[in-house]
Amino acid sequence: MLTKRIIPCLDIKDGKTVKGINFLGLKSVGDPVDMARAYSGQGADELVFLDISATIEGRKAFSELVGRIALNINIPFTVGGGISTVEDAAILLRAGADKVSVNSAAVRNPGLISDIASRFGSQCVVVAIDAKNVDGVWKVTTHGGSRFSDKELFSWAGQAETLGAGEILFTSMDHDGTCSGYACNEYRRLSGMLGIPVIASGGAGTVGHIAEVLSSDGGCADAALAASVFHYGEILIPDLKRRLASCGIPVRL
């Protein structure tokens, strides 16, 4: 069985790590480079950095910060936010990122996924999907969750895989920042229909929530991404991994 990954997520706005609830009420929680170094030392498997205001404000994800992060950690990390061309991705990968995450631009131009995958390989392409349950339909949003698209979660995830995505990072907007648990039914369905890894995001509040979304009788996700519980020290990664291992969930200790 493949090892499950624990991935702290750092949402970046104006060069600072921020956190909110349901994508709103953002407040600063620290310096991204300092936090990245700390998470690497604690045993995080990977990190994700999302410049959450880049698409809204029309800015490119910032390569200077990516370069500083790469110099300070020795684990893989993904960068997203405002990536709308292959060259945008190239700049970030050259700066030191291991993967790029595409979201709004890929919804608008699905060919972006295959263009990046063709040049750098599918292993470099993470397709992030922010979706909200509206009358039983998981509607895909763009621009930091501020606009609904015409896409539906499961069909879009399947299309993204066909186009060359190496991973799917699905964030449930209904669960984001609530610490009430992940949308396990949706992750189980995604994992069952896709042949690429699924990263669960949105709702982690306890070790039990993370264990549930990673377990074979729960969400079946390949990785659990969280922010608040790690940023505020409510869950420490070494303790989390020991408890996951005691539950029979394979992790890198």
Verbal overview:
With 253 residues, the protein is an alpha/beta fold. The protein has one domain: Alpha-Beta Barrel (TIM Barrel). 37% of the residues lie in helices and 28% in strands. It has an eight-stranded parallel barrel, surrounded by six helices. Helix 1 packs parallel to helix 3. The chain is globular. The two termini are 15 Å apart.
Distinctive features:
253 residues; alpha/beta; TIM Barrel; 8-stranded parallel barrel; 11 helices; 37% helix
Number of domains: 1
Query: What is the residue-averaged pLDDT?
Result: 92
Beta-strand residue fraction: 25-35%
For the terminal residues, how far apart are their CA atoms? 15 Å
Please state the overall shape, judged from the principal axes of the Cα atoms: globular
CATH topology: TIM Barrel
Count of alpha/pi helices:
11
Integer-rounded radius of gyration: 16 Å
**H/E order of the elements?**
EEEHEHHEHEHHEEEHEHEHEHH
Structural class: alpha/beta
In the CATH classification, which architecture applies? Alpha-Beta Barrel
Would you count the extended β strands for me?
12
**So what's the CATH class?**
Alpha Beta
CATH homologous superfamily identity:
Aldolase class I
Helix content: 25-40%
Largest sheet: 8 strands, parallel, barrel
> Poorly predicted ranges (pLDDT <50, ≥5 residues)?
none
Strand order of the largest sheet: 1-4-5-6-7-10-11-12
